[in-house]
Amino acid sequence: MRSSPGSVQSIDRVLEILETLSTAPLGMSLSDLAAATNLHVSTTHRLVNVLTEHGYALKDSSSGKYRLTLRTFEIGSRVSSVWNLLSAAKPHLDELAAECQEAVHLVERDGMGIVYLYKAEPFQQLVRMSSHVGLRNPMYCTGVGKSILSLLPQDEAEEIWNNEEIQTFTPNTITTFPDMIREMERIRARGYAIDDEEHEVGVRCIAAAIRNWAGNPVAAVSISAPVSRMDEATMQRLLPSLLRTVDEISRMLGHRA
Amino acid sequence: MRSSPGSVQSIDRVLEILETLSTAPLGMSLSDLAAATNLHVSTTHRLVNVLTEHGYALKDSSSGKYRLTLRTFEIGSRVSSVWNLLSAAKPHLDELAAECQEAVHLVERDGMGIVYLYKAEPFQQLVRMSSHVGLRNPMYCTGVGKSILSLLPQDEAEEIWNNEEIQTFTPNTITTFPDMIREMERIRARGYAIDDEEHEVGVRCIAAAIRNWAGNPVAAVSISAPVSRMDEATMQRLLPSLLRTVDEISRMLGHRA
DNA sequence: CTACAAATATCACATTATGAAAAAGAGGCT
DNA sequence: AGCCTCTTTTTCATAATGTGATATTTGTAG
């Protein structure tokens, strides 16, 4: 009896182990791992050993705990879209960050969410921001996400909305679909999105989408700053640079306006 | 009959599929994938579907080819050592790159090799260099690798050497162990390593190791440049900054001199 | 419309993964 | 030391699981 069409027990389990290990910065003992995954110790041992033999995990000789090696990092960096986007975008993003003297983010759409691919920060601008390369966030609560969402076909946007577990991160978070539809119209009308403390209190950002050769919004760029430094006037001042940057990157991906 | 102790066929196979897909920037059709992995189409289909259902791969609707999503990128970025090192090192590396106006690399040791974690480049300094974040290289042919190797216990260094398939990348590549032992002594004596076109013709670099709380050389930093810009005088000029940088990072990891 | 190729689904079979139980290690306490 | 407890590793009989030949569907080109 197979649980669902196209499911292989041992693989389901080993992937769960991989993901569990990835969230344990200090590593996990075999029994921790078995407890966390609800697998028998014996089974866990066998599976984590397979990961070890393939170089994905190792057993720290001093602590005796299992943790991930850089193998997943290596493979993750090879994902083609990372390459394509980063090589096209990096110089532009560094330039934008230097020009604005604020943190600049590049994200790519991945399924129902977005993943941060790059973060350019001006020197010593040490504002604590929860974003970092590799982080996955939903679309509805971030400037970058909303800018992408607004350019998708309505049914696709709705599907993404419905698949998301809507959380109220701050008082400003958009939590109903009608509100989001109005927001998406505003974004399309002005050509950029604003995240006004919708995900993190105290952080405001402006964002715009990058389009590929087919015109699809595959990625986005944002400029983020504490509200104190990001008032209406500042946003208007930074906007042209942001829009120029996403245009230049879009063109490098083959987009024709 | 199990092929080797601690081996699970379906997992071995799915990992091979994952790795194969990671090297195919344009994606692969099911039959391509089956051919590349020597698996039956039917089996390949089942396994790649498991990856798809877990969000690691997707089937591009226009081309019909399978490729990896950003899931591995996401998980790879969570690997704890990446976090620890990068957060400690990033500002120092950016500063070093700005100061030297040359490309700066941060690598971490992973098993028998090194993996590039970060690359800081001064503006518009577009020299083609094969290195990029996520790349894995052997130790014997890179400055960063040699600087780490030189601080390992002799038996460990020898084990790494023996496990490596030694390739002659350039006329300067060190290809015999006695030569490497002498080189390691030189590196220990002066406190830094030089890669004098040993991996790539035309690229010279200076490198030094980062030590953790236990004194182990877990990572390294290098400054790379075309030979034309990296003569003896330049190296002597850049060295203090490099050594100061690795010292600062080592201290942040708890190393006491 | 037909033919061919590629992708997906089905299913009987035995190979393969499973987990109980036993063995081997690693500390901790008297 | 020696004993006890907890954790990790190995073993092995069992049947549940993954396998791949075959069938079906889908897609593409002539």
Molecular structure report:
2 copies of one chain form a homodimer. Chain A is elongated. In chain A, the strands form 2 sheets. The first copy, chain A, has a 6-stranded antiparallel β-sheet with strand order 5-4-3-8-7-6, with helices on both faces. In chain A, strands 1-2 form a two-stranded antiparallel ribbon. Chain A has 9 helices and 8 strands. In chain A, helix 1 packs across helix 3 (41-53) and helix 2 packs across helix 3 (41-53). Helices cover 45% and strands 19% of the residues of chain A. At the A-B interface, helix 1, helix 3, helix 4 and helix 5 of A face helix 1, helix 3, helix 4 and helix 5 of B. Chain B binds a DNA duplex (30 and 30 nucleotides) through residues 1-2, 5, 8-10, 29-31, 39-43, 45-46, 49, 64.
Properties at a glance:
homodimer, 257 residues, six-stranded antiparallel sheet, 8 strands, DNA-binding
List the helices and strands and how they pair.
The structure is a homodimer of 257-residue chains.
Chain A: H1 9-22, H2 30-37, H3 41-53, E1 57-59, E2 66-68, H4 71-77, H5 80-100, E3 103-110, E4 113-120, E5 136-138, H6 143-149, H7 154-163, H8 177-190, E6 193-196, E7 203-211, E8 217-226, H9 232-252
Antiparallel strand pairs in A: 1-2, 3-4, 3-8, 4-5, 6-7, 7-8
Chain B binds a DNA duplex (30 and 30 nucleotides) through residues 1-2, 5, 8-10, 29-31, 39-43, 45-46, 49, 64.
